[in-house]
């Protein structure tokens, strides 16, 4: 079981009242992922449920009760670890997380709904909105946009260099057309080439290619900058063995088999050698005996694994490198 499946079983073990209280503290994406996993849970063996509870108990015992969450402490740690600019960007985003403003509420809607709400806005407004969403969420919104404007939106995201408080207030007013609530923002740093690259990592490959080709026709240098920051499936070759092992614990065998169908032999070998002998033999057998699959299915599986890899990188569990700068 991966982490999401374990969380689903754990929450279902708590009962409706306690589980609902826990889920109030999850992000929109976490609620969606865990809720989806809960809907698929059936016939859980007693030993599996007990194993999940034991894992939680161990994780809980490994935690300390040390309270160091003051804003000033967090600021100093982030500045020391990331530098003033990156720390400010993260702190700005943290400061936006507590309100019930329009942009925060967008995170709870599916991509198609968000696209319908903002498709008639100016591309610069659309770029700002996508800059606030998680990359995979923003990618689904972008894919619902007309083909003629996708590259323009990505270019605007890539060239964003922060947003002034007054402009942010205007954006908030636009969102108030769709949502109630008048909470105001402070300031924020959104966009940039990395944000554009992150969004494109979640876009369908053919659509991604069309967008990049259109950007290259307008600004070849910007196109190269975005390409350099995109993390591709083959770049997992640069993840160390400990990182690959952590990744393997979070993905299902079915997804891995599909993803490796389109991988080169070196990457297949890397995954195989980080499995136990028996698991590696089973995976090799699955790869050899499974029939032909659509290229789109392979690409979807690879993007799913990349999403997990990025989540683990954000948590500090693994280090991503490769085609672009290091992910922190």
List the domain count as a whole number.
Answer: 3
Number of helices: 20
| Rg, nearest Å | 21 Å
Largest sheet: none
First-last Cα distance? 26 Å
CATH topology of the largest domain: Annexin V, domain 1
Q: Mind telling me the CATH class of the largest domain?
A: Mainly Alpha
CATH superfamily of the largest domain: Flagellar motor switch protein FliG, alpha-alpha superhelical domain
**SSE pattern, N- to C-terminal:** HHHHHHHHHHHHHHHHHHHH
Query: What is the β-strand count?
Result: 0
Structural class label: mainly alpha
Instruction: Tell me what portion of residues adopts beta-strand conformation.
Output: under 5%
| Form type | globular
Helical content (DSSP H or I, runs of 4+): 55-70%
CATH architecture of the largest domain: Orthogonal Bundle
**Stretches where pLDDT falls below 50 for ≥5 residues?**
96-100, 181-188, 322-328
> How much is the average pLDDT?
78
């Amino acid at each position: 079981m991966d982490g999401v499946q374990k969380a689903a079983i754990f929450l279902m073990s708590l009962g409706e009242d306690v589980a609902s209280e826990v889920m109030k503290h999850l992000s929109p994406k976490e609620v969606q992922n865990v809720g989806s996993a809960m809907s698929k849970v059936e016939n859980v063996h007693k030993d599996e449920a007990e194993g999940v509870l034991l894992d939680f108990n161990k994780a809980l015992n490994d935690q300390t009760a040390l309270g160091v969450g003051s804003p000033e402490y967090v600021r100093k740690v982030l500045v020391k670890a990331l530098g003033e600019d990156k720390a400010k960007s993260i702190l700005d985003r943290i400061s936006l997380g507590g309100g019930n403003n329009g942009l925060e509420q967008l995170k709870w809607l599916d991509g198609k709904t968000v696209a319908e709400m903002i498709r008639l806005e100016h591309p610069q407004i659309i770029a700002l909105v996508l800059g606030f969403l998680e990359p995979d969420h923003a990618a689904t919104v972008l894919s619902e946009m007309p083909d003629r404007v996708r590259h323009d939106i990505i270019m605007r995201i890539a060239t964003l260099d922060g947003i002034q408080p007054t402009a942010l207030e205007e954006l908030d007013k636009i969102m108030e057309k769709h949502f109630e609530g008048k909470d105001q923002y402070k300031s924020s740093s959104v966009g940039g080439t990395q944000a554009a690259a992150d969004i494109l990592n979640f876009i369908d490959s053919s659509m991604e290619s069309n967008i990049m080709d259109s950007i290259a026709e307008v600004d070849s240098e910007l196109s190269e900058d975005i390409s350099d920051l995109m993390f591709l499936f083959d770049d997992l070759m640069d993840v160390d063995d400990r990182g690959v092992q952590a990744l393997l614990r979070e993905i299902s065998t079915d997804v891995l088999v599909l993803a490796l169908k389109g991988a080169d032999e070196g990457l297949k070998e890397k995954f195989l050698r980080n499995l136990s002998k028996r698991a590696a033999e089973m995976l090799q057998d699955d790869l050899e005996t499974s029939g032909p699959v659509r290229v789109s299915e392979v690409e979807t599986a690879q993007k799913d694994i990349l999403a997990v890899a990025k989540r683990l990188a954000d948590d500090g569990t693994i280090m991503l490198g490769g085609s672009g700068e290091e992910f922190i």
